[in-house]
Amino acid sequence: MDTGGSSAQVRLTRKRRKMQRVTMMDVAKLAQVSPSTVSLYLRKPEAVSPSAGQDIARAIDDLGYVPNLVAGGLAAASSKVVSIIVPSIRNAFFAETVATLQAELASEGLQVLLGHTDYGENQEEALVRTALSWAPAAIVLTGLSHSLGTSKLLKASRVPVIEMWELGGEPLDMAVGFSHPQVGASAARHLLSKGRRNLAFLGARMHEDHRAEQRAAGFAEAGKAGDASICEIVNHPGAATVEAGALLLNRALQQVPDLDGVACSNDLIALGVLFECQRTGIAIPEKIALIGFGDLDFSASCVPSLTTIRPSGDLIGKEVARLILDSIHGSRPEGARRIVDTSHVLIERRST
């Protein structure tokens, strides 16, 4: 008697069973409650009785059940996904904000869908299209500058939109951040207060990084309004790295031989300036006073310690999360409450 066929059928049946997704019906059956009670528990655990909640939680754990967020979104008009789009996932500034946002949203059962644009508006538009296909609970963008296509998509979507890390224009919906021209002006005024008159702002990729470009513009305006003799802006076409800092310093010294005050578009560039000054024997702050932006971890411990401007990325994350949760819970901010100014803080250290 040939049993090969029946054995293969048994194996195939077992494989199918193993591949089948655990459903809400399975959870309800094991917990001995209705599927609607399981659904309510997943959306609002506090709305289910403690005993039923414990039975459902135990069933979810035993079965390894994972809610289908897309299916849930189709049923409820929005999913439990929040799309966060940043210019770069390598940038420590945005990493702090995203980490804070994720922690704040997780307490409400919301999950983060993260994308990065590499400072490209076309890439941002593509990411927004993808995010909208998930019926997100909210979309978080970086900055106020977007393509016409992105703006049209978001305005037509009726999804809560929060633009973060920048203020100064009319937001699509809500905004959390600070004025970048004011940051640049603070840096210039600080250097002027130290008696520095031959100034330069060193930045990278400012043709794409509009916020760094705004800081440079604010720096130049404040320098000219003060009594700076020279106020140059020097741009590197590549990424804002330590290596770029060294290149930018040498270029600035060619343009301003008596350079005595430098502001950088971020702390990494400032660290490159610091290293290059040490390599070439330029004393900081005696010869050149140096200020960065970001207050990254190393800025307080490098030698000399780095004067910098802290943008409070963690506070931005908390305020963005608050606006998202308010919108989801039916108290969507209106009027002036749609815009939150987190400001900035200048932290003076040895480099100035």
Automatic annotation (TrEMBL):
Gene Ontology MF: a single term? transcription cis-regulatory region binding
Q: Which Gene3D superfamilies match?
A: 3.40.50.2300, lambda repressor-like DNA-binding domains
Where the record annotates domain HTH lacI-type, the positions are: 22-76
What Pfam families does the annotation carry?
Answer: LacI, Peripla_BP_3
Q: Which UniProt keywords apply?
A: DNA-binding, Transcription, Transcription regulation
Q: Do you know which PROSITE patterns this protein is assigned to?
A: HTH_LACI_1 (PS00356), HTH_LACI_2 (PS50932)
Per the UniProt entry, the signal peptide is: none
Q: Which PANTHER family match?
A: LACI-RELATED TRANSCRIPTIONAL REPRESSOR, TRANSCRIPTIONAL REGULATOR
Q: What is this protein called?
A: LacI family transcriptional regulator
Which species? Microvirga subterranea
